[in-house]
Write a structure and sequence with these properties.
alpha/beta, 8 helices, 41% helix
């Protein structure tokens, strides 16, 4: 993995704007910069061999997961155009299919067929309303040290009922 090329591509995507390269995002909300650096820090801290990302989009967060990753990343994207664009980005960064494997299709079906061993890191970053379903399918592949990361769990209150579950915290 050529980390200089990964850094270069990340900067290019950031400079050009994540949506400019591929047109409108179709309502996607890319992972924020502070979240992406947190992803990289988590990778360095956990040294994963098996990383699973649900929701690739164009691969911006995947590149941060790859930054310092010693193992393999499987990433799942429902949108065909986005999946191909992500693969193109990974190729430009010098990341082979042995390092990042892009699956185009439904995450539920992918998880039902998972046979790649125990998951070290799982990153939920797709349809927020399905996080619970996907967690239930994935948890049988967790080990005691599995790191679970979920982006934007409060986004439009789709994962939890924000009015109830976050009310006490906010007050």
């Amino acid at each position: 993995m050529d980390m200089k090329e990964v850094k270069r591509l990340l900067q290019e995507l950031k400079d050009k704007g994540r949506d400019e390269k591929y047109g409108q995002s179709g309502g996607r909300h890319p992972v924020r910069d502070d979240s992406t650096w947190l992803l990289s820090a988590l990778v360095f801290c956990t040294n994963p061999w098996v990383t699973l990302e649900l929701g690739t989009a164009y691969g911006f967060s995947t590149l941060f997961l790859a930054y310092g990753n010693q193992g393999k990343i499987w990433t799942v994207e429902f949108d065909k155009k986005a999946a191909y664009a992500a693969r193109d980005n990974f190729d430009q960064a010098g990341l082979t299919e042995d390092e990042i494997e892009v699956y185009h299709g439904d995450a539920t079906e992918f998880l039902k067929k998972w046979d790649n061993g125990e998951i070290d890191i799982i990153f939920f970053d797709a349809d927020k309303s399905r996080y619970g379903e996907w967690y239930q399918l994935a948890k049988k592949h967790f080990h005691p040290g599995t790191l679970i990361v979920a982006d934007k769990v409060l986004f439009k209150c789709e994962v939890i009922d924000c009015r109830v579950e976050v009310k006490d915290f906010v007050e």
